[in-house]
Amino acid sequence: MGAKSGWSVLLGAAFLMATSAIGPGFLTQTTVFTQQLAASFGFVILISIILDIGVQMNVWRIIAVSEKRAQDIANLVLPGLGGLIAILIIIGGLAFNIGNVGGAGLGMNVLFGVSVETGALISGAIAVAVFLVKEAGKLMDRFAQIMGGVMILLTLYVAITSSPPVGEAIAKTFMPDKVDILAIVTLVGGTVGGYITFAGGHRLLDAGIRGKQAIPQVTRSAVSGITIASIMRIFLFLAALGVVSQGLTLDESNPPASVFQLAAGDIGYKLFGIVMFAAAITSVIGAAYTSVSFIRTFHPKIEQYENWIIIAFIIISTLVLVTIGQPVKVLVLVGALNGLILPITLSTMLVAAYKKNIVGDYKHPLWLAIFGGFVVVLMAILSVYTIMQSLPKLF
């Protein structure tokens, strides 16, 4: 693999992870938390970035060194665990993909005036088309890079037009007025929770970047993925902060759209349509690809027909959205369960890092293991708390 194609794969994996994280929920959460915490939300972003990098560096390293996908590693740690994780990932991926397809439909609605359902059908067809191409992996990488770039540049433009108090944002990032633990958990879960943790790691494995010799490349790609997602988060935070600090009120039914509109007028509203579509369509592709990668090794037929199973995954998500709509109660429950997937998968990876039958003579850095253990304990406690808070909403 040449240096150019090697870097292209690393960047592709980074953008796949980042754009999988940047979905409709990402846009809404960032805007709502900025409205609640103002400049102090910068501190939440900073802490979540540090935790995210710790998670990704642990997980991607162990996948690369073991040269196995997460479900196969889990089955070697404890027989049957890989199957359980795969089921959790697929249920979560499918539920979130219904929301992602809806987000893409909303983006189409803003841009072209078509109904959200029609927009969802068109978006589903575009996502399916990516996996009908022979070199689907390369097209997926390129698509994620282009859409990711478009989102970041347009959000930067809106951030500049909203004239945020940058000095205050920097100061409160390190000296916040208040700390919201739930916001930190939501951001970490949304950036590296569920299937997202493995999107880039599994993509690198598919592209042949594996083994101890690949650790520097894998680390670079993991940090790049978090950096890309974080740049988007920071620009959106600044855009929302600029609007909120002017005393303007956001529309509760669609907070991110009102940020774009209040900052840049009708043009801003159209830009929101592009950003929402780009964020949602890349999340549809990332969720489908990664979810199916969790059952790929369970049977040779799944590997043989992988692209067709991914296409079926996208079609089911689209049809559920068009016929039933977004099942809010299901999404609330799955969102809470998604937070629990991270402690389970990360703790499994940390155990695997010290099993010779999985990683051979590889020595996992102690500081990374300690950091990973801290994230496991923190996210487990806070996820259980979140689930207890969510249950009354369901019944």
Automatic annotation (TrEMBL):
InterPro entries, per database record: NRAMP_fam
Membrane topology, record value: Multi-pass membrane protein
Main localization, broad class: membrane
Keyword set, alphabetical order: Membrane, Transmembrane, Transmembrane helix
Name of the molecule in the record: NRAMP family divalent metal transporter
Protein's cellular compartments: Membrane
TM region(s), chain numbering: 37-55, 76-98, 110-131, 143-161, 181-201, 222-247, 267-295, 307-324, 330-354, 366-388
